[in-house]
Design goal:
With 207 residues, this protein is of the alpha+beta class. It is built from 7 helices and 5 strands; from the N terminus they run αααααββαβββα. Strands 1, 2, 3, 4 and 5 form a 5-stranded antiparallel β-sheet that branches. A hairpin with a 2-residue loop joins strand 1 and strand 2.
Amino acid sequence: DLGDAANQILASRGVTSISLDDWYPRSLQHDCFNEVQRRFGEPALYAVGFAYQSMVRERYAKEVAGITQQLQAAALHNRTPEIERATDFAIDQLIALLHQASVNNVRNHPVSYGFFSARRQPLEYCVSFSSFAVASLTSYAQAIIYGMVRLAFPPQWTITIDLDSQQRNRREGHHADHFLVRLSFGSSSVSLEEMRLQETLQVKQKL
């Protein structure tokens, strides 16, 4: 299983136990990701990314709850300017939290490392994930972004996330994936859990 795979990789690097107070090479994490992809495929990387964003949400539970409350308030007014402003604020803050969580775990990280977002047009955003990985972590990053956005937004917002192929770039020792995040607002007759399940299945079908 994944635990055995991770332990084998760590042991091959001379790491027999993990201490939360110590620093470890980022390459260890990437080796584990590569092994996950080799053994289980892209859906497994997606699952790892979804688990990671859950930890980020727990770490920043108060901040995420505040974002959700602002979105709910905008939904009650149901006016386009308020909806767009609340959505802009939410995406900006959620991606900033993801960025903060990612760079906090990397010592002497370059300014290009982490998560970034830019508004392209109303309710449409380019969200980028830049890493040191040699192999692609596209499914991992997509799951993190989708999970963070979906679980913070009320079900009145529907979400689609696709690779932005025009923005894709790579250089030696560095990888960046760019995603086009589109949101739409409208009435919803399903629960957040049902919405999340439907959208997650749509994402997995693209893997």
